[in-house]
Amino acid sequence: MESAAKTDSNAPIIVDVDLGNRSYQIYIGSGLLDQPHLLQQHVHGKRVLVVTNSTVAPLYLDKVVRREEQRESVEIEGRFDGDSGCVFKSLPPRLAIPQFLEEMRVL
């Protein structure tokens, strides 16, 4: 675990989850959605699918989508609202994402 900066009160704590080629980072802190560069540094393509669930979506989805749609280099292809069961990483919602992408003709 590492801290982005000790002097900045808005700096998140960053936890690196090392899973080889499936590694990712978890950002912990307040006001993270007001720091768009934190998300944008992980968006490498031009087409984006936002994956969320019924717990998180009402709180944050609109703000994330609005911010990303303002970037000319990114197009939001769709929004996948999975079950709240996604919180527990249950298999059926994860399998539903490729089907959703295929139906949207993204894959």
TrEMBL record:
Keywords: Lyase, NAD. One of its GO terms (molecular function) is 3-dehydroquinate synthase activity. The keyword NAD applies. InterPro entries: Dehydroquinate_synthase. One of its GO terms (biological process) is aromatic amino acid family biosynthetic process. This is 3-dehydroquinate synthase.
